[in-house]
Amino acid sequence: MDTAALLKSVSDPSDFPDEKSAPGLRSLDHALRCNICGEFFDGPVTLPCGHGFCSLCIREHMRQESNCPMCRVAAPESSLRKNIAMEEAIAAWTSARPLVLRLVSDEKKSITEREANPSTTPSNAVNGKKRKWSSEGTFTTQEAGPSKVQKEKPAGDSRKNSGQSPKSPIRVDERDDEVEMVNTSDIEEADAVDPVVNCPMCAKSVLESRINPHIDSGCKIFLASKGQNVNNWLKIFPGRAKGKEKQTDDTSNDVEPDRLPKASYGVLKEKKLREMLQEHKLPTTGDKATLIARHQRWIMIYNANLDRAAKQRKTNNELRADLARWEETRSFKKDQVSDGVAYQEAHKNEFNQMIKDARKRLVKKETPEKSRSTTTHAAPSTSGPSNVVAGGDDDNVADSQDES
Amino acid sequence: MDQLSSSLAPPRTSHKSPAATTPLEGAGSVTKRLGNELMTLMMSSSAGISAFPKSDANLFEWVGTIEGVSGTVYSGLTFKISITFPPNYPYVPPTIKFDTPCYHPNVDLAGNICLDILQDKWSAVYSVHTVLLSLQSLLGEPNNASPLNTDAANLWDSPSEFKTELRKHYRASTENSN
Ligand SMILES: [Zn+2]
Ligand SMILES: [Zn+2]
Ligand SMILES: [Zn+2]
Description:
The complex is a heterodimer. Chain A has helices at residues 3-8, 25-31, 55-62, 84-116, 122-136, 146-162, 168-178, 184-190, 211-216, 227-236, 270-279, 288-305, 316-334, 341-364, 372-375, 387-403, and strands at 44-46, 52-54, 81-82, 181-182, 196-198, 205-207, 223-224. By secondary structure, chain A is mostly helical. Chain A folds into 4 domains: 9-116, Zinc/RING finger domain, C3HC4 (zinc finger) (Herpes Virus-1, 2-Layer Sandwich), CATH 3.30.40; 176-250, no CATH class; 265-332, no CATH class; 341-403, no CATH class. A 3-stranded antiparallel sheet of chain A has the order 2-1-3. Chain A has a two-stranded parallel ribbon with strand order 4-7. Chain B is α+β, with helices and mostly antiparallel strands. Chain B has 5 helices and 4 strands, in the order ααββββααα. Chain B has helices at residues 2-13, 30-43, 128-140, 150-155, 159-175, and strands spanning 49-55, 58-67, 78-84, 95-98. Chain B has a 4-stranded antiparallel sheet with strand order 1-2-3-4. In chain B, a hairpin with a 2-residue loop joins strand 1 and strand 2. Chain B starts with a helix and ends with a helix. At the A-B interface, helix 1, helix 3, helix 4, helix 5 and helix 7 of A face helix 1, helix 2 and strand 2 of B. The complex binds zinc ion (3 copies). Chain B: Residues 1-27 are annotated as: Disordered.
């Protein structure tokens, strides 16, 4: 990933205008973020001192020190408590965020327009633009009346240069050039013949026929659109949505799953380690240090997942994809390889096996009934802290698809 | 493409959808954290500090600059620094070194820095931004109790002599354009 792509993927409080032009928005966006990872709290937990972090972030910290990274007050891992209210606030905020950003941008723009062209009726300008925004989501100049065409063009440019949320609108445009997406309606039609599967590397939706070139590309191309994720995962894990039916995956049962105990690896033989990994359907390649690191991280990811609200939780397969990404980042650094290709090559067989397994499940399961309200957050996202954001997104998409 | 943006763009427009991100991202991803830090640095208006990845090939190596604060002996001087992030960042501090020779009580001749928050006082909630600000203030307020460069520490109380020595080291580097 290059720097530009990295920056494009970042969501940041500075997406909002400063305190003076939009009091509270930037600090609200900041207050809901973890100080370790900078993302919205993912499975937020609170320490005895009152400070909060993502469950996974603070557990990783506590491998080294049993204290709060903010104030250094002692805090054992056992003192972590989930913060349900915070999680709900974040779910609401991440689904409101796009709209708020749009409103802020509209507001700013109508002010700019009014200043630039006092003769244009402000309300018209705003409404005309809003219609544009909601129908296409990107700012274009055609729909406005002839007299406004000249005026809006420079305004559109200035939004990129001096707009108060300089990053978000631009990113979308640029990203579209880089990532080949598949039209949602195409997928819907093609669904029966070419089902969408979730890439075991990145957990994103990909047409089954494209999964191998997708992985070969470093998970950059042949992404199916996100709206599809919901239905697709329903096919793979049909029971998950309800939380009642039998699961193909072992994450979700009626009973709150137990946390995994930590292991003391010092005395363990490699063979035993491999068995322990196999038990959780994890790859068993690598030296002893790799096996231990993998198992340790798995325990942490698994336990942190339980600090998410049940409907926010990831499936074990999604957690495995997270683990794969985590290992990739580590090997990326270790080998000084510029991308994850080497890692993907090394583990291709195992991941191909995971794909096959996913396909098998796909075939066995009949198309399940849609269950919007309970499934929206079950939709897979890339992972981790952005999980909540993705949930909010899929929510919108699923709604609009079902209603149309 | 057009169709896609018309059906999906409204919810996607205003925040960065995970769909476009690369597989390097993940829970607790270093890459993601570095992206956040870079954004903070670029959006913040802190004077006299900057940092950016050295190249697209390796986001774990950054270069930064620190300008001396006016009113200190370092006023008007700009120092290049290198920042190396460990794979388990931010749970472990980044390695930071002066590339431009910096004559300073807490910096040795190889550019190594003695600063508590870069060692045992590091916290995962610190960032490049906070570290660069600390370094900037360290320039003007050295900790002379535990010097890495004892000559510089001894000379600190004689500003004009210190300045001469500082300029000598600084100039040597800029002339030898390494
Ligand atoms: Zn976090
Ligand atoms: Zn605290
Ligand atoms: Zn309660």
